[in-house]
What does this fold into?
Amino acid sequence: MPELLYCGVFKDDEDVLGAVKECREAGFDIHDVYTPYAVHGLDRAMGLPFSKITWVTFGCGLGGLTFGLSLMTYVTDYDWAMNVGGKSSLPFPAFVPVLFELTVLIGGLCTMLGLFIFCRLYPGKNPKMKHPRLTDDRFMIAVKKNQNFNIGRASELFRKFHAEQMLDLDSEYDCFASQGGTS
Amino acid sequence: MSGNACSPLREPLVLGGKKLGDITQDVCGSIEGKPSTLWWFGFLLALTVAGIGAATMGYQIYTGIGTWGLNKTVGWAFDITNFVFWVGIGHAGTLISAILCLFRQKWRTSVNRSAEAMTIFAVICAAIFPFIHMGRPWFGAFWALPYPNFRGPLWVNFRSPLLWDVFAISTYFTISLVFWFIGLIPDNATVRDRAKHWLRRAFYGTVSLGWDGSVKKWNHYETAYLIFAGLSTPLVVSVHTIVSMDFATSVIPGWHTTIFPPYFVIGAIFSGFAMVQTLLLVARKTMRLESYITVNHLEVMAKIILLTGSLVGLAYGTEFFIAWYSGSQYEQFAFINRATGPFSWAYWIMVSCNVLSPQVLWFRALRRNPVVLFIMSIFVNIGMWFERFVIIVTSLHRDFLPSSWSYYTPTWVEAVTFIGTFGIFFTCFFLFIRLLPAIAFGEVKGVMKWGQPKGHSHDAGHSHAHGEVKHA
Amino acid sequence: MSEGHEVHHDEPSTFTAPAPVKSLAIGLMALGGVGFGLSWIGGANMAWSGWLIGSWIALGFALFGIFFIASTSLANGAWPAVLKRVPEAMTRYFPVAALTIGGVAIGLLTSHLYEWTHPELQEGEHRHQVDGKSAWLNTPWWLIRTVIYFAIWIGFSWMIVGLSRKQDADGNVKHTFTTKKLSAVFCFFFALTVSAASIDYIKSIEPVWFSTMFGPYQFAGIFESGWAMLAILLILLRKNGYLKNVVNENHFHNLGQWLVASSTFWAYLWFCQFMLIWYSNIPEETQHYFARWEGPWFWVTFVVNPILNWVIPFLVLLPRSNKRNIRLVGIVSVIVLIGRFVDLWQFVLPRPHAGHDGPVAHYLPLESFGLVFVAAGFVGAFIFVVMKALEKAPLLAKKDPFYEESLHHHL
It folds into this structure.
């Protein structure tokens, strides 16, 4: 069931930042905010928590490290121990480069997968853009039309921050759907 | 906010009073129209060179690496020089995209995309050389990858720096590719939303993975981006460190010296920046990107070249001094032989190109002169190629037994292969600037208020028409 | 925007060294004095080793101060503008450092601190190698070099800090540009002098051993401990009511990031130097690590040292919230300083001919632990000098063109 939204379109990042803060003070529920680039501080202004993706990296990096250490220990000491240059068959200093690379490789690849899963990104996904210029030079705040919503206050607030347009949309709306181009 | 509190000394990063939409138009426009004649000329030339190179590579793989000029004494020469050269070129891309990101150097946004692309193409070129040097590359997977097998307990040797290289280069390539791809997602979404043709929409729709600019996504995206910067920074250092260990773990005087890891990393950044400088000087002129890649950008890069060039000079000096200080006659001979022996011509090319030529950059007027910078960057590219040649060949050609002293001259096969990799590099680069946004405009937009007079805002008229805005 | 302006009016503009900090500094110096006295139990070599370690640690703080100012200026770094008086005050320690290195010279002349002063102690091939270095390692040239180093360090720091004082008076932006030019020239000399000084003061303790990495490795130690000292000084000032409103968790976030980065840089160089020597196994290089390969020194060199200098700062300060926890940054900084001592201690003490018989690796007498107090005494002297120097100028460089940006520094 699509969510009903009330959206304001803005032209400047500082207006969006201000409007988001006031929307939250006014008690509106923000569905989402759309920006063409990462606006510094907007995620915190919306009250979003810090991304948990760091833990994916940390955990998987540690996994890569453990995998590398087990593999090399097994190969060089357990399965076929060799005397190379009179050194121990567990030459830890010589393991460090490969351990580091495996930590970064597996940590990095999992970070990528984590990002795609957290953001639900995949090839062929229809982004359902709410406005054709949101990836260009327009910013949009989409407020949920639920019991906390008040259209008079919302439009007054948006206007205060120089909203260019105010639109009634729903979360399934796709501004490109009628243009014939499907993706 | 942060943009308004910036110091009065800050200079704008984007010139020409551009608005948000202008940036989109300037960058996307260049990949939406038909390619120019100049582009076709460059692309076809690069493709031809790449083709000749590929044919030569096929010839030597078919015939064997006896087609090279190696001999018993100098068993490692042109191929490994080219390998280190190309890996080094790639390092500047990661430096700009990752290290400068961590240092919050905002100027990087105009140049990071093409520098990252350069990294990927350079690593491809680098990988060609050890691949061919395996002699029978179709067995490569047997030799390079550890996997359980039925040939008895036959494993790769984890003590070998050459195996570390396999891990380092493949990790570096993979992570750089991922970092680059993730950076491209929002910009590809912009190209997708501007696309008129269904095929373009489908292509950019696929590579933008359904990006919609939602701040909930930006939140994860920004964190992931920072993590990639944090991972790539030690990664890029590790890569050239490991490359340097190919030499430094040996007992060969001239190769075995503890300063090699940081010295190789600095040298790699130095050579990479010279290559970035070369490419960007051409790109800003031919693609009219002077508003984004400004003289200030060139000057900052020139300063980094001066810094890294001088540090490389310091490393040369340190090596010489410690060779004397060590009291080891072998160490001393290796360095005196470098400077005065049969390969002294290569040594002095190296010193004059790497240490002396960047010293002109102490002067502001020369740092801001594109012609001077272009000539200087070519010199540095040449000098850094010779640095690797000098380290590799001069340390080998007079070994411990004077009766086996020898000289090395490359054959035409080696020379053409090296030239061919330039063809491959530029073919990839020309395809890149036609297919993908060559400037990370999503990031440039975020810094365009930087250093602008107060009160500057995006809120102003647009100089070009966009698609109709629909009202629902 | 407005918050910054309001709070910064409450900030005391003049500074008098707070009594608790002064007592701390004097207490540490007293401890150092007692420690130095007691270390003579272990003989002159032991005592002068402690003096050398302490002098080099504290000299490193001053070097960090001037390098910090120069590199910030070259990189157009804005965030430290509100705290730049502290690194400036750190450079005022140079004259005292010159005196303490003078003390090292006494050790050089009167004891076996530097083995190259007594080449006859070396045997066989080693004797030959030490003699071969005599063109560089001889007492007059060592003294002349010391004078040259300090002339460069004191000269440049006086000029650069002087420009900052001039800007306080006239607010002219051109001083910022002049500082930048001077900084570029200084960095050139800094690289040369620090590389050479680390060979002269530390590496030549073991005259046979050599490593091209040594200069960068010592620089990494100076860099890491410098960040730790800067954080400690800022915390001491904040605890006593200074800079409380202008230096906030955002600045400490940066300090924490730098501690993570610099400790990793140290670990990188430390590991590469060791690994390459271990791998190649060439006798005249390996002898240094060989002396630390077994017995108690193994634990100091290969376990405690990397844990204090890298593992703890790296793991503790990696999460964002910990970097913004000022108390925690302070605790880690103290650990890093102890690590700095351990790093030099394990280099300077276990060496042959240090006035004892038997294998070097098992030579870890009780009195050698007392050297940590000697080093603490030098840290105390350093803190004292910095506090006195801070009194000489306004605590806030309000006319610095980056001041406003630094005040609103936000991560």
